[in-house]
Amino acid sequence: MGLLSIIRKIKKKEKEMRILMVGLDNSGKTTIVLKMNGEDTSVISPTLGFNIKTIIYQKYTLNIWDVGGQKDYKILLEELL
Ligand SMILES: Nc1nc2c(ncn2[C@@H]2O[C@H](COP(=O)(O)OP(=O)(O)OP(=O)(O)O)[C@@H](O)[C@H]2O)c(=O)[nH]1
Ligand SMILES: [Mg+2]
């Protein structure tokens, strides 16, 4: 199932949504976000805290929260979930 089908299924009416990227540190979360946005992925550093990137995908606005996977950020993640 593609990203657009998943989005359509979850929220048929809402055009803006928040996507939380979670996973272990060094697992490739930031790389995925950058790739989705067509950005360079040749130099990537561990995410400190979190970064928010807004991507317009067809008629949807996706606010992607890319959360650092290091154990120091587990408390932060619990707050965001
Ligand atoms: N071989 C390979 N390396 C990858 C892939 N995706 C990401 N990487 C590399 O893995 C490393 C970590 O990628 P990140 O995107 O920073 O991982 P992250 O999950 O955001 O890490 P944190 O921010 O620490 O939580 C980087 O050096 C990437 O270039 C992949 O599909 N294959
Ligand atoms: Mg990262």
From TrEMBL:
The keyword Glycoprotein does not apply. Keywords: GTP-binding, Magnesium, Metal-binding, Nucleotide-binding. GO terms for molecular function: GTP binding; GTPase activity; metal ion binding. This is BnaA07g36220D protein. It comes from the Eukaryota. Pfam families: Arf. Mg(2+) binds at T30, T47. One of its GO terms (biological process) is protein folding. The lineage of its organism: Eukaryota, Viridiplantae, Streptophyta, Embryophyta, Tracheophyta.
